[in-house]
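Final report, results section. Input specification for complex C-07:
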Amino acid sequence: MVVHSLKARRMGRAAAPYLLLAPAAVLVGVFLFGVANGVAQGFGIMPFLGMYEPTLGYWVQVLTRPDLAASVQFSLYIAFVSSAIALVGGVLLSAALCAVRQTRMLSLVNVQIPLMCAHILVVLFMVSLFAGSGLVTRLLFHLGLVSSPSGFPSIVGDPSGWGILATYVWKEVPFVAFCTVTLMSHVSDRYGEAAATMGASPVRVFFTVTLPLCRGALVKAFLVVFAFAFGAYEVPFLLGPTLPKALPVLAYLEFQNPDILNRCVAMALNGIMAVVTSAAAAAYFAVLRKEGRRK
Amino acid sequence: MKQNNGQPQPGQTTGLMSRRRFVGLAGTAAATLMFGGAFVGCAGSGNGGSPASDASGDDAAAIANSVDFSDWNAVLEAAKGQTVSWYGWGGDEARNTWINTVLADALKQKYDITLDLVGMDINDILTQLSGEMQAGVEEGSIDFIWINGENFYSCKENGYLWGPFTSYLPNFNDYIDGNSPEVLYDFGSPTEGFECPYGKAQMQMWYNSDVVTTPPTTVEEFAAFCQQHPGQVTYPEPGDFTGTAFISCLIAGVVGKGEFEKLSAMEEPTEEAVLAVVEPGLEYLKSLKPYLWKEGTTFPADSSTLSTMYADGELILNMGYGAPQDLVNNGQLPETTRSFIFDSGTVGNSNFMAIAANAPHKAAALVAINEVVSPEMQLSIYENLGNISVLDMAKLPQEQRAQFENVPLGAAQIPLDELLDHRIAEASGPVIPILEKLWLERVAQA
Amino acid sequence: MRRQARRAGCSGLWAARALVALQAVCVLAPLAIIVVWAFTASWPWPHLLPESLTARGIEELFGPSQKLGEVLGSSVAIALACAFFTTTVATMAGRALSRYRFCGREVFRFAVLLPFLIPATVFAMGVQVAFIRAGLAGTVVGVVLAHSIVALPYAALIMTDAMEAAGNRLEEQARLCGAGPVRTWSGIIIPTLLPSLLSAASMSYILSFSQYFLTLLVGSGKVKTLALVMFPYLSSGDRTIASAYGVVFLAATLVVFFLFELLLHKRMAREIDYFNG
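Structure output:
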């Protein structure tokens, strides 16, 4: 009897993690089914059109596109710069919020509100502010610094992509702060005061204690922002230049094509994005493992 | 026993814990598995062509077949009490309001049909429809669609549409000229009764008469106009519907209407064939570039961005399928707004309504479509939205024709006969992606 | 030496305050513009104030055909359900990932985060097909579950991190003192995790509330949410209407978050009383 219940208990313990994970596994399973469907389309499998024969044709077509290299480069540039700025800005914001003993009201304004604005809404007010005829240009005009709308590098379609960067920075600095602020206030509460009583300056505490302890969370936040900025089409579609187009914009335009067969091309382009973001994810995974081993 | 010694916690607590926890976990897991099972089971059966889904499909087909669509009274009877969903672009407040109030009220009162307008981009509609097709749904969620030519071609090719149905509609038979090319063809592809016209549209250019005194009415004048106002004129990047239509107008102005309309007859065009027609036009567009907004290095991605820039005064010219009278009326654009067209004409098309192949309420969809093309509703559309009617005026009774003629014209609007006299047929659906690609290679990149 | 540190701390505090204030301005200034635009008819160059005002935005919002209340109600309900469901699922997953060593743990850790890396257009249609087959397309339940797919990686990340950081010392002490599992969870685990639970829930809420593409496909256009009505206007260039919806969208979210806050405060206050008593 005793042995039996012991065995059952041990089995229960072994099964527990799987049972705890089951609901999440179902959600991930549905997601993976969706991904498989999309990947299959990239290889020309569209059951609803009676296409079952896999082909590499669409991938070849996409990989030999003359505009591909410039697009990948532009997207990488957007993704790297915006996630780097978001990281630095997010850390500063997070540290500042911890330092002023963030009340929940402050974090609501500074962090939560930007999180809840849809990207396309952010584009709307970025254009209101920074278009050739935007409010900032008008202010400069009244100050006598600009004589006409064309005197300002309008946010729309600028080849440097500064409009896309500005939009992402506005959205993602608070996101990075959101990801780190709880942990950071925890860390500075626990170790910061100890270090401070030992005479270390707050800045030194921040760089030698707080930041290293938050490293894991920061790397994760960076990768999430990177993957998003690399793969989302809305902002670069609306604010990006005609040439080169960001990679997700190319995919979106193919997806939009009335000819449904072009969705295969779109999925192949999405496949390229997935490869790049997976490389980023592999780096992320490596970070996780390293962290795990350290523990 | 050894195990127990190894555990720091009192054994009893652990046992209690894990047993209770186990029950709780098992409960959630069971629920999850049931839910997961629904997916797996159904996915399996869907792939295997399940008898269950086939049977329900047959039922739906049986119900659909039981209505004799050629008997209009039977259609009206079948439609009674149904809720019909209309999927179409949802970004036009005036149109949404008109559909939700005038049209919906009429359908409710006359036929006891509830209209549910779903605002959705046409490519999202396509995605939804193809998803339903892939899942083998016999009774979908979409009844009828506001559709444009390029997408119509692709939908009909793939068997997403139900028809032919226009011959069932009394108002179509009575008031619409079924033999006019604008009804027979949509972007060059034959409609074959799978689409009923909804409205006619024609490209027009808008300007503020306070800022621009004489609008350019030929392509030569337009080039001079751009030079006089450097950086203040541009057009949406072709690929955007409006952008493609606008460069079509300019190309037609350069190569001539007759030459350009060759494009509307091409069913399987090659790049060479299209280029042979449009090359002088592309050269012209290239020559404009230095005088355009941002020296033509970049173009706004869509017409709404352009409209914003025009409304704010960054640009002095805007364009669209119709006159901006409603924008003037609601104060978005000044009273001095006017429209013009080129002497060489501007492109125009009809937009249509089509019924989804798996529409659950085909009878109600027919009644709703028939109501949209009734003289009363077409008049109301013309009055409220400024859309050109699809009815054949010659077929209308004198009294109703007079009502159309008596609708007062806004200051921003161009008289109907002037528009129709300068109407160029749009390039056919398959030509358009080629034209856009050529523009990208020979104008944007050059 | 110490005074110096304190002075540095003081100037650092001022810098932090300035930074927080700057961020608040960066957030609130554009929002003010949205509010103004909701009442603006035209605002051309070079005016710094709107040229003419209109009630069109308000009329559109509260027009009888819009059923704003209904749409808003269903959006909030869906987002709340998604927040609750996702947070529960993520907490369970977080518990498994932070507390147990088991075969496939690393794989699962990675799999949960995959939706970050793959654009929605890739999986949306397949997800739609799965939901149609399961009979969940066009239903509120289906939409909530679909939103949870998108929200899960965020919530799982937050909960796993939080549980790993929290460790199990307190929990084990409680158990040693003879607390049962219910008491351990309600008295120790949930209160320690409360800030993270709230973060996960609010992130899920936001993701659900602003989800457009998946709602469209899985809801088949039958489940109407505010995002569904708002997005066509956002991309149509009608700034008055788009801004009016934007204001409602933000206001609704803020109201819900304030209620969250109130609830939390009440609970925290009770918690403190409990310990004091």
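Chain C touches chain A through 97 residues (CB under 8 Å). Residues 2-12+14-53 of chain C form one domain. This concludes the modelling results for the funded period.
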